[in-house]
Design a protein that fits this description.
The protein is mainly alpha-helical and 98 residues long. The chain is elongated.
Length: 98
Amino acid sequence: MILAQVALIELGPFLLFCGAAAGVKFVGILASMYRWVVLLRGQGIEFPFRHIFGSFLIGRFIGTFLPSTAGLDGYKLYDAARFSGKTVEVTATTAIER
C-alpha cells in the first residue's frame, strides 16, 4: 500500500517543496548562527563567521545523539570558551540565548 502511494507522487512538486523546506531550515540555522555572533560581540568576543559556521555544524552533529539542544549548546560553549579564553562571558551568552 505504501509503495502504491509513493508511486503516485509527482516528482516536480515533490522536489519543489523539499527544496523549499530545506531552504527554510538552512535560513533558520544561519539566523541562529548570526544571533550567536551578535551575542558574542556584546560580550566583546569576536570570531570569524566561518569559525561559528563550523562550530554549529559540529554541535548539531553531536546534538543528534543527545537530548534537546545539549549537544549544540555544549559544544558552542566549549569551543567559544576554548578559543576566546573567556569562559564566564561565553557561559553568560549561552544562558542569555536560552
